[in-house]
Amino acid sequence: MVRWQPGTSGRLQAAALELFASNGYEQTTAAEIAQSVGLTERTFFRHFSDKREVLFHGQELMVDAFLAGLVAAPGEATPMELVAAALESAAELFPDERRGHSRLRQSVIEQNPALQERERHKMSVLAATLGDALRGRGIPEPAATLAAESATTVFGVSFTQWIGAGEQRSMVEIERTVLAELRNLTAARPAAKA
Amino acid sequence: MVRWQPGTSGRLQAAALELFASNGYEQTTAAEIAQSVGLTERTFFRHFSDKREVLFHGQELMVDAFLAGLVAAPGEATPMELVAAALESAAELFPDERRGHSRLRQSVIEQNPALQERERHKMSVLAATLGDALRGRGIPEPAATLAAESATTVFGVSFTQWIGAGEQRSMVEIERTVLAELRNLTAARPAAKA
DNA sequence: GTCTATAGTGCGATAGAC
DNA sequence: GTCTATCGCACTATAGAC
């Protein structure tokens, strides 16, 4: 009998999402998740520093995707062009097939304030990493931080729309629209004519 | 002998900040904080829903300040003008005398990821509340959310600068500069001439 | 105000991979 | 043999229930 199998983290993540979705986050103990895949509570905490983290592993992939967009952009790109490039690159992680999974995961997160906090924290780490990368390309402060935060804001708004009921547009399509809206908003000198 | 004194929450907050700063956040138990002001652990948790919250009570004042700025703005104001008004109003909560206190509090928060998460969450709640208020003024989506998030971003960047070593400028002064930088950043069509 | 479940840690032992 | 994943147990603090 095998004592351990590969993909332990992944199996724990899948089991956790399933249990959280059906029984609720707080009603599901770490021990239950572990037992459901034949492991112990202690092993769960070896893979995930805390219970929430089981829902957020994989966010490093997103950071990498944003950074890949920056790396591929031309050297003379403006900060906002870099933001656009990062967003386009990140959108590849959200193909239409993943909408269902994203919706399920998000519904769990929305049901628990502690999970919302963790999500915000991850976005914040993403923004900080992006800011570092922009500074690394010679963009000064506070432009680098503002651009990085704008990128995550646009991403967040776009993601919310993407998983919205009845939404058909692709992630990249939505991102472009939202980014254009941000440009328009901040550039607007005259008020509305209403 | 008095059984309780007024300002219990305030005394717990002050004691907590002091203990966190000198002994570290994780090394300080809720029971210790309570005992240091002659109360029991149970009483601590009656005032604060969890241990972190003792550092974040008072953030409602900030939400109110942002909203007050919106209310005072003229009806035909553009979203970005409303953002500016909210920021000016919020700056009043950060007079120069408070810089020292803000620096100490922030140094504690920066030492602990859990506290950083809570801080992000509070900013997020602020952004959501601002977004509601903007929608209440007839600003459509996604402009309302983008403007609200931009406001908190500018606030965050400004606050970081405000508590920076050697910083002399007032909060409102910094906010105006950062907001101008955001306008410039997003409006910029041509690239740098370097 | 007491009692309790659960999150999360520390340490030693064990079982396999290499 | 080393290295790492897992287990098992004892333990504290948080946080909620009674």
Automatic annotation (TrEMBL), chains A, B:
PROSITE patterns found in the cross-reference section: HTH_TETR_1, HTH_TETR_2
SUPFAM superfamilies in the cross-refs: Homeodomain-like
Superkingdom of this protein's organism: Bacteria
InterPro entries found in the cross-reference section: DNA-bd_HTH_TetR-type_CS (IPR023772), Homeodomain-like_sf (IPR009057), HTH-type_TetR-like_transc_reg (IPR050109), HTH_TetR (IPR001647)
Keywords: DNA-binding, Transcription, Transcription regulation
The entry's DNA-binding region: 29-48
Domain HTH tetR-type: 6-66
PANTHER family noted in UniProt: HTH-TYPE TRANSCRIPTIONAL REGULATOR RUTR, MYCOFACTOCIN BIOSYNTHESIS TRANSCRIPTIONAL REGULATOR MFTR-RELATED
Full protein name: TetR/AcrR family transcriptional regulator
Lineage, uppermost ranks: Bacteria, Bacillati, Actinomycetota, Actinomycetes, Micrococcales
